[in-house]
Amino acid sequence: MLCRDVKRAVYLFLDGQLGEMKQNDYNSHLKLCPSCDTRTKLQEKLRRFVRKRVDHISDAAPDRLKTRLVRSIRAFRNEWSRADGVLD
Predict the structure, then answer these.
(1) Contact residues for 66 (Cβ-Cβ < 8 A; gap 6+)
(2) What confidence score (pLDDT) does residue 88 get?
(3) What is the 3-state secondary structure (H, E, C) of 9-72?
(4) Pick from 77, 84, 88, 82: which is nearest to 15 by CA?
(5) CB-based contact 37:70 (threshold 8 Å)
(6) Residues 6 or more apart in contact with residue 36 via CB below 8 angstroms
(7) Secondary structure (3-state) at 77
(8) Do the Cβ atoms of 26 and 88 come closer than 8 Å?
(9) What number of other Cβ atoms are within 10 A of residue 8's Cβ?
C-alpha cells in the first residue's frame, strides 16, 4: 500500500470497513511509514474529539438532517469502493 492509498482509506480503516487483506496492508504500511502512522493517529483523535462534542446534541438533530448525513456517508463509501477497489 502506498501513502496515497493510506490517505484515501484512513476513514475506512478507522471504521473497520476495509477487507482483511487491505486492513493488513494498511497496518503494515503504518509500521513502515511514520508520517502515515502519525496522520492516522491524528485522524483517530480528531474523530474521538468530534464525537465527544456532538454526542449530546445528536438526539436533537432533525431526522431529515440525520437521513441526509447517512445518505452522504453511504454515497462517499460506495464511491471509494468503486473508484480504487480500496475495500477489496
Answers:
(1) 58
(2) 45
(3) HHHHHHCCCCCHHHHHHHHHHHHHCHHHHHHHHHHHHHHHHHHHHHHHHHCCCCHHHHHHHHHH
(4) 77
(5) no
(6) 3, 6, 7, 29, 30
(7) helix
(8) no
(9) 15
pTM of the full structure: 0.62
CA-to-CA distance for 50 and 20, rounded, in angstroms?
A: 27
> The C-alpha cell of 3 is what?
501513502
| Distant-in-sequence, close-in-space partners of 18: CB < 8 Å, separation ≥ 6 | 9, 12, 26, 86, 87
What is the mean pLDDT of each successive set of 10 residues along the chain, which is 88 residues long?
90 89 94 95 88 69 81 74 51
Residue 80's pLDDT is: 61
